[in-house]
């Protein structure tokens, strides 16, 4: 789903959605990003992330996953080439000093760019790479990920774990129905960028294209819970998955369709609850 929960998705050619990127980034950081905390925790626990970890986060966004690793003592570096508004929030979290070159978590770097922008002769190799933006809910949402992973390999030692994340089976991801209803506005012909169910080997295929060797996987329950329908809509809109729909129709229409799709998941107390399962893959550099 999204970087975000997937990477921010661009609308189809010719459409420019009129959205407030700063507001969306704030909604992501305050509402939606925390939904993946169980995924981050499961991965960090399994890989024993701590004081000896040098982590490179690809598509780090507003930095919650990096913050959690840094709180375990890890040295963290985050890169993101396409979400400057989110990256600004990551700097507020991890580099609160006004000079932006010092923070409470030691050796922390945040760069608007890709892996090549954090390389250098004096940079020690990373021993963990994460790409936590889940793939597998939109056709083509893994495009470019393999090349990004390939660019990361020279910055690591042999055998370094690389973590990929993806949506679980649609029957175990309640949010899939909401995404399916919403994305039909942007692409009724279901071309690249349309919703599609996650496939069992999505993550393995990406890893193999990047020259990585799969070495274990896991599933984690990541329910999406919101205080009310408005919070749910703001959170899901913040993923960027609905930008194409806004560009193809308008914000009013998207809000209407999204609210209707959320209605079955509204509980008697007004909260919205959507159970989901996400999958992660641990691959190794060769």
Largest sheet: 7 strands, mixed
Which range best describes the helical content: under 10%, 10-25%, 25-40%, 40-55%, 55-70% or over 70%?
Answer: 25-40%
N-C termini distance = 29 Å
Mean pLDDT metric? 87
Alpha plus pi helix count? 10
State the total count of DSSP E strands: 9
Low-confidence stretches: 1-16
Which word captures the global form?
globular
Strand percentage lies at: 15-25%
Q: Output the structural class.
A: alpha/beta
Order of helices and strands: HHEHEHEEHEHHEEHHHEE
What integer value in Å does the Rg equal? 18 Å
Main sheet strand line-up:
3-2-1-4-5-9-6
Description:
This protein is α/β, with parallel strands linked by helices. It is 33% helix and 18% strand. It has 10 helices and 9 strands. It has helices spanning 21-32, 37-46, 64-71, 84-94, 145-152, 175-183, 202-209, 229-237, 243-248, 251-262; strands at 54-58, 75-79, 109-111, 128-135, 161-167, 213-221, 224-226, 272-274, 277-284. The chain has a 7-stranded mixed β-sheet, sandwiched between helices. The protein has a two-stranded antiparallel ribbon with strand order 7-8. Helix 3 (64-71) links the parallel strand 1 and strand 2 (75-79). Helix 5 packs across helix 7 (202-209) and helix 8 packs across helix 10 (251-262). The longest helix has 12 residues, at 21-32. The two termini are 29 Å apart. 47% of the residues are buried.
């Amino acid at each position: 789903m999204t970087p975000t929960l997937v990477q921010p998705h661009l609308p189809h050619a010719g459409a420019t959605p009129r959205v407030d990127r700063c507001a969306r980034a704030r909604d992501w950081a305050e509402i939606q990003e925390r939904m993946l905390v169980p995924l981050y925790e499961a991965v960090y626990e399994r890989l024993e992330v701590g004081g000896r970890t040098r982590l490179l986060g690809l598509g780090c966004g507003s930095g919650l996953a990096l913050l959690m690793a840094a709180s375990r003592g890890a040295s963290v570096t985050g890169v993101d080439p396409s979400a400057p508004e989110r990256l600004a929030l990551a700097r507020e979290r991890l580099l609160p000093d006004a000079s932006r070159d010092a923070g409470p978590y030691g050796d922390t770097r945040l760069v608007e760019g890709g892996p090549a922008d954090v390389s250098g002769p004096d940079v020690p190799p990373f021993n963990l790479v994460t790409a936590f933006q889940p793939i597998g809910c939109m056709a083509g949402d893994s495009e470019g990920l393999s090349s990004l992973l390939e660019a990361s390999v020279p910055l690591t030692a042999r055998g370094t774990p690389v973590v990929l994340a993806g949506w679980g089976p649609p029957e175990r991801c309640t949010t899939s129905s909401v995404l399916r209803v919403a994305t039909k506005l942007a692409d009724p012909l279901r071309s690249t960028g349309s919703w599609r169910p996650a496939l069992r080997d999505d993550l393995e295929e990406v890893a193999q294209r990047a020259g990585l060797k799969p070495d274990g996987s896991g599933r984690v329950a990541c329910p999406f819970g919101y205080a009310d329908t408005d919070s749910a809509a703001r959170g899901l809109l913040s993923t960027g998955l609905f930008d194409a729909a806004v560009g193809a129709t308008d914000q009013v229409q998207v809000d209407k369709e999204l609210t209707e799709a959320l209605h079955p998941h509204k509980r008697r107390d007004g909260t919205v609850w959507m159970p989901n399962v996400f999958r992660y893959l641990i691959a190794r550099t060769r």
